[in-house]
Amino acid sequence: MTRRTFLAASGAALAAPNDRINVGFIGVGNMGTSRLNGFLKHPDVNVVALCDLDDKYLARATGIVKASRGVEPPVLKDFRKLLAMKEIDAVCIATPDHWHAMPTVQACAAGKDVFVEKPLSYSIGEGRAMVTAARKYQRVTQMGNHIHNDLPNYRRAVELIRSGIVGKVKRVHVWKTSESKGLGAPPDAPPPAGFDYETWLGPAPRRAFNPNRSHFNYRYFWDYSGGMFIDFWCHITDVAYWALDLTAPKSVVATGRREIEDDNAETPNYLDLVYEYPGLNLTWGLNPMAPAGFEDKGIGCIFQGSAGSLFVDYGSHQLFVKGKPVKDFPRPAPSIPDSPGHIREFLDSVKSRKLATCDIEYGHKLTKAGLLGNIAYRTGRRITWDDAKEQIIGDSQANKMVTRKYRKPWKLA
Fold first, then answer.
1. I need a surface site. Which of 158, 178, 256, 295 has the fewest CB within 10 A?
2. Distance between CA atoms of residues 218 and 223, nearest Å
3. Averaged in consecutive runs of 10 residues, what is the pLDDT profile of the chain (413 residues)?
4. Structural contact between residues 78 and 51, judged by C-beta atoms closer than 8 angstroms
């Protein structure tokens, strides 16, 4: 189903049966609790169920809902039971990356709208399945890339780039300072009481429990995520994709390493990538040190054009011409409407049936380039990409990493 067909079909659909939106939460760890608090700020949200594999997180989330709404919602450990609740209109999925796809695809099939955290998916194949399900079942979706809507700075920067203030953009450089201290190397141990580790592993390979391989630190292990790089790729690269309307890279090369003492993690903390787009190179740097001249900026995106450069981070931007900062310069009239907020936009879309700005299709487009970067790093080879087929050209080994084989008995749908 095309975007236009989706809009036409969903425009005729009914909004929620009343002004209240019944939301179920799948994953209420640290990020999930943050999202829960965010949804609870909106009086038209009913929290009707909580799901997590860790009892301590369920207890904490229950207390938050009771303090806010005066009731204790049902708590579950099986997301499929939550999706079977007919009263639920939408779900918020804030699980580890390797658990984004299954609940999303099955939620769409169950007629639920979906707010799912970034990066959209663990693999490119999963992301495509998520888009297909959302379009097939005509669901409203939003990827939890909150910088896109919660801070107005990106909007102003996008307007400036589109106005031509730096001329034709020739190169984009993006960076994030990375971890320099190790996680430690604790021995394997039994999982803590109240934590369903076997289900937490889900489609990933079976491994002995290690304190560093779950909860927050899961992102530093290839079985579940792609390191600090993929954790921040969507946040920071979003402004470049938005301003330049980028699609998919033609190729990507990568080099890097993990250089940390007292550490059992796997993903690199030094990573340099070069993405080739038509007429443009985008470079991405992950390093404990920020680039020279921007030592005080832990993140950044620089648009380099024929007439100047524009630096952007979450909350600020700065124009440079001939290497010197320019304080006063003409600004284009605002062309991108201000957002009501990332969660509010999703809730409004649930009611109106209009696509959200970070809907699942945009999320997939943005996420897959980051995933290609990790494939390039892990194989040590230049990756050439056919976006129409969503396949790596001429490298069958690398192409196997475009999706993942699920561990039995787990299935995507």
1. 295
2. 8
3. 37 52 98 98 98 98 97 97 98 98 98 98 98 98 96 97 97 97 96 97 97 95 98 98 97 97 96 97 97 96 98 97 93 94 98 97 98 98 98 97 96 91
4. yes
DSSP 3-state assignment of 321?
Answer: strand
3-state secondary structure 136-156: HCCCCEEEECCHHHHCCHHHH
CA-to-CA dists, residue 34 to 92, 101, 289, 321, 343, angstroms: 11, 20, 29, 40, 12
Of 385, 353, 194, 246, nearest in space to 401 by CA: 385
* All structural domains of the chain: 3-149+341-359 (3.40.50.720), 153-336+370-402 (3.30.360.10)
Q: What is the DSSP string of 46-112?
A: EEEEEE-SBHHHHHHHHHHHHHHHSS---EES-HHHHHT-TT--EEEE---GGGSHHHHHHHHHTT-
The C-alpha atoms of residue 181 and residue 194 are separated, in whole angstroms, by 30
Q: Which amino acid is at 121?
A: S
| Rounded Cα distance, 199 and 209, in Å | 12
Residue type at position 172: V
Token digits for 73? Answer: 């919602």
Closest CA relative to residue 375, chosen from 226, 238, 228, 257: 226
- Amino acid 51 reads C
Which three-class secondary structure state does DSSP give residue 26? strand
Q: Is cis: bond before 340, omega within 30 of 0? A: no
| Residue 413 pLDDT | 86
Q: How many residues does the chain have?
A: 413
CA distance 146 to 148: 5
β-partners of residue 324 are: 321
